[in-house]
Amino acid sequence: MGEYAAPLRDMQFVLHELLNVEAELKQMPKHADIDAETINQVIEEAGKFCADVVFPLNRSGDEEGCHWNDGVVTTPAGFKEAYQQYVEAGWPALACDPDFGGQGLPMFVNNALYEMLNSANQAWTMYPGLSHGAYEALHAHGTDEQKRIYLHKLVSGEWTGTMCLTEPHCGTDLGMLRTKAEPQADGTYAISGTKIFISSGEHDLADNIVHLVLARLPDAPAGTKGISLFAVPKFNVTPEGGIGTRNGIQCGSIEHKMGIHGNSTCVMNLDGAIGTLVGEPNKGLNAMFVMMNAARLGVGMQGLGLTEVAYQNSLAYAKDRLQMRSLTGPKAPDKPADPIIVHPDVRRMLLTQKAYVEAGRAFSYWIALQIDRELSHEDEDVRKDAADLVALLTPIIKAFLTDNAFEATNLGLQVFGGHGFIREWGMEQYVRDARINMIYEGTNTIQSLDLLGRKVLGDMGAKMKKFGKIVQEFVEQEGVKSEMQEFINPLADIGEKLQKLTMEIGMKAMANPDEVGAAAVPYLRVAGHVVFAYFWARMARIALDKQASGDPFYKAKLATARFYFAKLLPETAYQIRAARAGVKPLLELEAELF
Amino acid sequence: MGEYAAPLRDMQFVLHELLNVEAELKQMPKHADIDAETINQVIEEAGKFCADVVFPLNRSGDEEGCHWNDGVVTTPAGFKEAYQQYVEAGWPALACDPDFGGQGLPMFVNNALYEMLNSANQAWTMYPGLSHGAYEALHAHGTDEQKRIYLHKLVSGEWTGTMCLTEPHCGTDLGMLRTKAEPQADGTYAISGTKIFISSGEHDLADNIVHLVLARLPDAPAGTKGISLFAVPKFNVTPEGGIGTRNGIQCGSIEHKMGIHGNSTCVMNLDGAIGTLVGEPNKGLNAMFVMMNAARLGVGMQGLGLTEVAYQNSLAYAKDRLQMRSLTGPKAPDKPADPIIVHPDVRRMLLTQKAYVEAGRAFSYWIALQIDRELSHEDEDVRKDAADLVALLTPIIKAFLTDNAFEATNLGLQVFGGHGFIREWGMEQYVRDARINMIYEGTNTIQSLDLLGRKVLGDMGAKMKKFGKIVQEFVEQEGVKSEMQEFINPLADIGEKLQKLTMEIGMKAMANPDEVGAAAVPYLRVAGHVVFAYFWARMARIALDKQASGDPFYKAKLATARFYFAKLLPETAYQIRAARAGVKPLLELEAELF
Fold it and tell me: Which intervals hold domain Acyl-CoA dehydrogenase/oxidase C-terminal (chains A, B) (predicted)?
């Protein structure tokens, strides 16, 4: 059951009409030759692959799950073959460095690929997804030798990668981690400890797995300043780069989970596993953050992908399912009842999904474009500004898109009524899969603390001002035009409110640091809405310009923008009050009196 | 994994300190002899049964699920034995009519029992829960013969009951149902058709199952005015009231669902099944509404029960799990990190659950007391007023408590971080189980339409005024006291806003009935908060009065009240805006342009 088709028109709208990526790429020497047509062709092909090869394995993968037998993990039927096709088609290499066999396409193309992969099958996508993160970390921090050994294999997809952070007693609090790395005479390290929740930690898709493992050197300082990063392959690599002896890292068991059943979530036992140091000793978290930031954006794309597929399916159902008459009289008098899409609250559920997915797409593709600017723009100032914007907005991509996705997939389920609760219809899987995205790669609370504490208050609002300036310029440019006032007025208003709220919290936090913890979650929701309001206003501008074309695509875009401002943005009225209420109502009660 | 203990202190607080039920019962002749001690003893015993017998089967029942084999359904291991103990202890009879073997206790005692049963095991509880609804429908609308045959068996729990409404093509829209009832020469009816989503439709717990089936007589008018209700036993009943021949109603299959795995959700095929008419021909929905209203309150209790158990478990975890230091300095310096309950956002997640469960308990026990008043009060005016309050507030119990429960169970899961997503820890089951409560017995959208369209606007606000008067009297009585202003001011404010909103929507609905559909869902959220604000203010009043006792229970109550007003009630600022935004943003876009 279920359906998925890549939303090509909307993706192209974002890339070309909103972001004008072809012109942007002209300012990036290494991408200057890439034109819109190439991008569209790649995305179209990727869409076919996702719909035809990956999507059909989504429900079956959920039903079957992964199998563990004495350390060997078998993925659900079809996963391995689909992965082989993925590798053969060269998809892992899409945005990778040509020096290591990559195709050198911009990040935003990869982003579009991942949106579609996640719509098609989040659990499957996590196998190549983690590999890409490992590629980025090794590309940024690996030694030449590590790059030589690992990067070609990760780029080709012959090998996959993982990130091994969490231990039973520490998830968020990595400073407590205990895994030990003993230096060996040959310059390698013997690593021992237990890691849990390792996504794609063991499986049958690839010949080898490169684990990026956080561990402590013998003389390491306590806390997060004594953590080093190691590359630990499942099979030791021969001098020729081939598969050598089995390394001392084993999958002790796999977890039984609420969702993403098709992905193996592994307990990994390291018993003197041989690894090599990545980056500098005791600075492992720095190196790992490259992977974690990539992963956080990746999780945002998981949220986006699930929102899109839940929307597509609930829309189809709402047009098909006949139930009750419209309160204003029959809309399908020839049928025994009206399709439920005529009912206002079904509309609310559909439009909420639609508004979230389209703004999320605009925002996340724009962020991917900023990453391309950061990596490749010819102007150093542009690179610096882009890096700041990416740093500022990564926690919003991760938390706002995944919170929205959980709401959206739940609305998608609700549109189906009782059938939404039945596994066969496929909607409840989206909810179960979406649930993990609010937790892993740093819970959404951690994201909100990262946003407010580190990214906003941490530099006295400097990064925030950069984004504020972008919004402000748009407001000033469009605010004088009467047809834009319905969008610009609330955008300007919420922008000012966010600024004011930021200053208030900043002041309060000086007296009591817990004020940051108390305000962070609602603050992130408000900031997310500022971003979405900005992108909806920009998309409305384009839709207004092209209205005369008569293309109903623009009419739909405009109506969705109006829905967003009328029905979703007002959530900020709640969140601002919740943020402003401060820490006192949270900490008044002693813990032992709960 | 997991834990549950009946929250006896809080239940007794609601029954005795808030509702003063002993004094209330004095005005109900048939309950006048029941004292507080008896009530407490019953609840304490029930709590033990729930914690010791029913709760241990919750996880295992979820893991195992039900089995179907050629029409025979086997429930998970232990379910049958637990049900036998339940029957032997007389729990099914608790609030039933002594004329049929019942114990004649008030409804609110049954309500307390059901809160605890649902905390312990929602899927299991649905077997006796549906039976109780069937008992109520037959008690109200059955013939003497039907009462004679069925009620003793339902009261004793030897037999169970179901409600058979939904068909593949109609759930919400019962007017479309097709199941046929052909009159037979002996006054019975031969019923044929297919019913789906029949909870507890077939199982191995009891000797017989009484299905209450909606069907059409041959000459029935189209739509909802041509639906009749029939009692259709699994086994025909012998003249002596024993088990006779197998009737023509069979379980064709059971559904595989997101949650409530331990409850059998059945496709029931009727092929000339023999039934008897309940109530009048073509007025089956009237009779069924007795059962549906009972079921809607029952679903609210499912939400309440899940909220309580999720809260208990996440609280225990938050006190135990060590992770990070408080931003204001170590709180457990002797430990490697602080327990996570020190972090403000963990507090938010715990207090949200706590505030929802305690207000939900106050509200739902109060409603149960109104049902007792409706059924048993000596004064007819009191009976009438109580009936109006129950009718008005039933959709709020159903929708508000279950929406809140879904949020609360999700927050409970989130407190566990990654462990919340792992089945072994038990938290994700609460989320999956909670999800159905927003759908069945009328989706929460249907509840909101019932509230706004039928219960509020349908009588020009007459019922609403009755509840408004209760709130208003409390506001006037307490508003003059300075210590109560932090609670009374926002309560009075939100009460006025709801009144204003009601009038606005009423005006708009006269011009366009779709305005009701557009506003209903946010309207119900606002109305629910008015109810919760009222009960939190009342509980705060009691806590203030007893503060001097030094009992920390009252300190906790007061702190939770303050949290509610500071952090949860402000949701209304959003919902009022969403309601007010009206229907235009929902219907602007033609269905075919989605």
Answer: 282-449
